[in-house]
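Give me structure tokens for this 308-residue protein.
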Amino acid sequence: MNKNSKPYPIGTPGVPWGNIERDTWRERQPKLRSYADDVLQPLDILRANFEWLQYGQVAYGEESYPLIAFKSKIWRDELPIALVTGGVHGYESSGVHGALAFLAGPAERWADRVNLLIVPCVSPWAYERIQRWNAQAIDPNRSFRADGSAEEATLLMRLVAPFEKQVLLHIDLHETTDTDESEFRPALAAREGKVFVPGLIPDGFYLVGDTDKPALAFQQAVLAEVAKITHIAPADAKGEIIGSAVVAPGVILYPCKPLGLCAGMTNARYVSTTEVYPDSESCTPTLCNQAQMTAIEAAIGYALANQD
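Here you go.
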């Protein structure tokens, strides 16, 4: 937890950012890894088993990024769809690599039972810079709405729209990290001209369900499998996780559609956002990826067994 009360280094305290501050913030974001090497190259190997879809392109200055989804090669209209999304926040690495690992491994086991639509990295620019926002200092995970201003979110919604009525499950892969307190929440407060109020980072894996359709038995079934890989986050002294009431062990709820969250972009019966904690002393990047894979499989298994 970061309790440093120093002002964020960009902008004037109490004054929302304008274009100058946004440009300054963007110029301070160096490229730290490669979307082409880390995501596109591994995806290319999977073309034999899945249909490769380029559903759009985002460009910032001289940099341009193809947006890629994979769908089941044998698509059966009578089967439901399991939608998996990762990398909505580019810095949350296991969301991207967990989705890639699922595609490369256990995904084929479900080929005759469900149509898969997998989007491993929604925000490539942010992935390369280990950032939460896109290049315009916009959080894509507040932009999944008709008036959303993040192109990454708009293009993904267009991809999913034709399939929307068939989506039974949507699992969106995220992380909660120590840098949420040291960088990303202070940056958000500065951007909005507000005072940063420090919070607590939960130690462990937890799930965020949808307030309108919590499906707690579904959430608990997923957590039971993930607990075999990594520990589940306990509630804090207030009975909360990141400021929200714990409604079942390891589960909190958000109003997904009103907030413009990725998990709210369909009317799927089963919806969950995963949150793994990569900074735990008892966790590793490999375990984080495994936890995300396990969550995907557990979610699909439960949804298919309880779709009627």
